[in-house]
Amino acid sequence: MRNLFILALCLVGLSANAQLYATQTGEVSFFSKTPMEDIDAVNKQVGSIINSATNEVAVQMRVTNFIFPNKLMQEHFNENYLETDKFPSATFKGKIKESVDLKTPGTYAVTAAGTANIHGISRPVELKGSIVSNGKTLQLTCTFDIRLDEYKIDIPKIVFAKIAEVVKVKGSFQYNLR
Questions:
Q1: Which of 31, 64, 68, 90 has CB 3.0 to 4.6 Å from 74, enough for a Cys bridge?
Q2: Cα–Cα distance for residue pair 149/83, rounded to 1 Å
Q3: Average pLDDT in the 14-38 region?
């Protein structure tokens, strides 16, 4: 919660008209498809804030909160691939590119451009999605791809055929006005 508070302070800035929408129960999942094996995991403890005055978005999660259907996969993910002892969290900070008034009820197609930090590597990324607003709450869904080599996530040759080079990521967030 402390980290979400710090993110909120960063997003509020000096804007007197800031309306913050926040969640601690956002969901991020990923899917890796190969001819040999499909791998999927979900994290349902993702914190996020949207500042409606500036359209800035911040997302933060503990990587160890991803749950896999197989405990051995989860162990390998944390210890061998994402090295969560060294890199415990992943973040996204960016801004919605379209001019949208999130206080006005409606459905908005959005693109957020910003920086993702995964495995200690920061890279520019664009997230495409939609926001449904009723004025008091927001529902954001988004998708994007992660190329493992761009974040220096090394896959041993022995299991290379079981893990996709590009992983599909989906996010789903239900925000409340703060």
A1: 68
A2: 14
A3: 83
Nearest C-alpha neighbor of 104 from the set 152, 52, 57, 157: 52
Burial of 3 (0-12, 13-18, 19+ CB in 10 A): middle
Amino acid at 42: V
The sign one gets for the Cα dihedral 79, 83, 87, 89 is: negative
DSSP the chain: -HHHHHHHHHHHTT-TT--EEEEEEEEEEEEEE-SS-EEEEEEEEEEEEEETTTTEEEEEEEGGG-B-SSHHHHHHIIIIIS-TTT--EEEEEEEE-S---TTS-EEEEEEEEEEEEETTEEEEEEEEEEEEE-SSEEEEEEEEEEEGGGGT----GGGGGGS-SEEEEEEEEEEEE-
Q: Which residue type, as a one-letter code, is found at position 13?
A: G
Task: Quote the CA–CA distance of 42 and 69 in Å, as a whole number.
Answer: 9
pLDDT at 11 over 50: no
The pLDDT tens digits of the residues spanning 75-87 come to 988 998 899 999 9
Query: CA angle 171-175-177, nearest 5°?
Result: 160
